[in-house]
Inverse folding.
């Protein structure tokens, strides 16, 4: 993917979450606004493709099921300045 300085974040998610500039989640209204304004953003559907994505997804969303992320990560935008919004249905 072009990242050369990848490391494990030692403090885990709680530590990452405590950094004020990190975004944990966004509301559906924010996502709709990004779509409506045609903002440069990539929306990634991380649900199983056949069982969920194929039955309905946000228009324009890229299907990268979490279980296939390693194999499909090349489908992410090459421009690392484009924000990524991942969505799923939680534990299904």
């Amino acid at each position: 993917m072009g990242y050369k300085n990848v490391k494990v974040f030692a403090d885990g998610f709680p530590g990452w979450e405590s950094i004020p500039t990190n975004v944990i989640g966004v509301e559906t209204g924010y996502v709709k606004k990004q779509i409506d304004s045609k903002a440069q953003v990539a929306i990634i559907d991380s649900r199983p493709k056949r069982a969920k994505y194929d039955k309905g997804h946000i228009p324009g969303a890229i299907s990268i099921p979490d279980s296939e992320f390693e194999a499909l990560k090349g489908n992410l935008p090459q421009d690392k300045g484009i924000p990524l919004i991942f969505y799923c249905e939680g534990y299904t």
Q: What stands out?
A: The chain has a mean pLDDT of 86. DSSP finds three helices and three strands in the chain.
